[in-house]
């Protein structure tokens, strides 16, 4: 559910010359990171996302600037505002997400549990609702 998408506080190595935030396989990331990508040069007022995944799990970090994720499990919606390079939002499988309110120059860093494959996407909202309704017998 959207309430099972926690915001992780990242370890920060801080000295007088700057900061390092760490995400590491099998330390604070509970899966093997297979892919890293980042969104940038997002135009003012642009909205992205509009899909869910069957298998993919992700950690999302506002590496620079800020933006909002709207998470939707088919029953509840939750808006998460990310504005810190020291926090990572854990998006579990089966969550519809939309992204908006990207600040100028923002960078949305994503660590993903699987390589890119279009077959893992649910891009139609009605298909998503059917999927979560049929899948609710598992949980
Ligand atoms: P998408 O995941 O829909 O973007 P967002 O959720 O940020 O709006 O991906 C947009 C396009 O980029 C889509 O055609 C698939 C492609 N893409 C890749 O080829 N590889 C990737 O790792 C990602 C994330 C997207």
UniProtKB/TrEMBL annotation:
Coiled coil: none annotated. Pfam families: FdtA. CDD domains: cupin_QdtA-like (cd20292). Residues 4-132 form the Sugar 3,4-ketoisomerase QdtA cupin domain. Signal peptide: none annotated. InterPro entries: QdtA_cupin_dom (IPR008894), RmlC-like_jellyroll (IPR014710), RmlC_Cupin_sf (IPR011051). It comes from the Bacteria. This is FdtA/QdtA family cupin domain-containing protein. It comes from Sphingobacterium kitahiroshimense.
